[in-house]
Amino acid sequence: MAADDLLALDAEHVWHPYGPMPGQVPPLLVSEASGVRLRLADGRELVDGMSSWWSAIHGYRHPVLDAALTDQAGRMSHVMFGGLTHEPAIRLASTLADITPEGLRHVFLCDSGSVSVEVAVKMCLQYWRSLGRGGKRRLLTWRGGYHGDTFHPMSVCDPDGGMHSLWRGVLPEQLFVPAPPADFGATPDESYVEMLAETVERHADELAAVVVEPVVQGAGGMRFHHPAYLRALREITERHGVLLVFDEIATGFGRTGRLFAAEHAGVTPDVLCVGKALTGGYLTMAAALCTGEVARGISTGEVPVLAHGPTFMGNPLASAVANASIGLLLERDWQADVRRIEDALRQGLAPAAELPGVVDVRVLGAIGVVQLDHDVDMAEATRVVTGLGVWLRPFRDMLYTMPPYVTGDADLALVTRAIVEAARTA
Ligand SMILES: *Cc1c(COP(=O)(O)O)cnc(C)c1O
User: Fold this and answer.
1) Is the pTM of this model over 0.70?
2) According to a count of CB atoms within 10 Å of the terminal CB, is the N or C end of the chain lower?
3) pLDDT of 324-341, one tens digit each?
4) Average pLDDT, the chain
5) Which helix (H) or strand (E) holds 93?
6) Which H helix or E strand runs over 413?
7) Catalytic: 276?
């Protein structure tokens, strides 16, 4: 079918993320992708600075991942997970238990990041119900977070960014504290820690859990905070009998320079969510992991089962490609790659700091952000960066990149140049 006809049908029928219907701004038509390049239907090639929303850490059409997928498709693409099990899911769950922070032993595989947050919340609520503490059903989080688009995750997204005013009366009303001071390297703010401790103590009777993204608040604003706040949260929640959930859907699998961002703080949450890069960007899958104590609490209650079970739970194709992706990550010196990218981003984005309208340039691991004093002109930014052969998807006042770990130095230079140019004009 001709590109124009496809795009006309797209506008007529296909809903895109956070888009109106019919579509207003035509998306770019992609026909293929390999390595770090997207090939457009009109023949142009773009270096992908987004890793397809932070998931394609090994790039596209990686031979090892392709082989894992075709090999698994030759055995079975899917079987139900109720009453049946299979090696790909068993291997994946035991690997996740091995590589995540010590103590997270039990793994619930599910369809997407948002669903894994739903499952994490359900684990926490059910845990307290089982212990006869059904009144503990609210969540506490800090502002500036993002945890997904289904309703419970939305309720702990930043109230402004998550459009809570639109959903008043629909979303459960959770407790919010101010966003953590956003500076990974600065001395932690004692008064902020005191405020956290006081708030948790005051609401301990109604709080089921504190839910946060560790170290990097991603889609809520690309803010990086000091790991000391996570250590403080661990200590405070333990002291007051509140569970702690880390949402590592964006940070997991090396993005911040540690395999999991919790390692920066050296703490284990009670529940941990992973997603996005789990399958190397090939298929949708996520997981919620919990400690033995949470699992025991749930399993000895009045309803002694975790009441959740998606149709495509533990999907063998997704599990197989996740196993291959984790294997690929761990067998290479991924830390060296992330450090190399971090250096290239620092160097390449530094000139943006001098530009009028730029309020901050920050880099952590393989994440580079240029923040403006105004919302990015999306059409103009897209024109500028695609003109230079780069794909980026800015949001709000932010131009940023989270490139695949396999991105070479010349391509990184191209990506940072595109960000600097867009900061100049958009
Ligand atoms: C993307 C994201 C989610 C939601 O994941 P989906 O797979 O899009 O549902 C949740 N939490 C964080 C931190 C994310 O970055």
Assistant:
1) yes
2) N
3) 999 999 999 999 999 999
4) 97
5) helix 87-99
6) helix 409-425
7) yes
DSSP string computed for 312-337: TTT-HHHHHHHHHHHHHHHHTTHHHH
3-state secondary structure 389-405: CEECCCECCEEEECCCC
Task: Return the structure tokens found at 331.
Answer: 């067998």
Q: For ligand 1, what atom is nearest to the CA of residue 251?
A: 13
pLDDT (tens digit, 9 = 90+) per residue, 7-63?
999 999 999 999 999 888 899 999 999 999 999 999 999 999 999 999 999 999 999
Joined together, the tokens standing for residue 367 give 């994440």
The confidence score (pLDDT) of residue 164 equals: 82
Q: Rounded to the nearest whole angstrom, what is the distance from the C-alpha of residue 140 to the centroid of ligand 1?
A: 18
pLDDT of residue 165: 85
Task: Identify the CA nearest to 72 among candidates 58, 89, 60.
Answer: 89
Q: Which two tokens stand for residue 39?
A: 């090939």
Q: Which of 278, 270, 211 is nearest to 250 (CA)?
A: 278
Q: What ligand 1 atom has the least distance to the C-alpha of 276?
A: 7
Helix (H) / strand (E) element for 203: namely: helix 190-203
Rounded (5°) CA angle 50-226-235: 120
Locate the ligand 1 atom nearest the alpha carbon of residue 150 and give its number: 9
Chain segment 162-206, per-residue pLDDT in tens: 788 889 899 999 999 999 999 899 999 999 999 999 999 999 999
Mutate to test the pocket of ligand 1, among 217, 276, 282 (most ligand atoms within 8 A of CB): 276
Count of beta carbons in the 10 Å neighbourhood of residue 176:
18
* Ligand 1 center to 2 CA (angstroms): 34
Among candidate residues 102, 34, 63, 72, the one with its CA nearest the CA of residue 259 = 102
Residue 152: CB within 6 Å of ligand 1? no
Q: From the CB of residue 400, how many other CB atoms can be counted at a distance below 10 Å?
A: 22
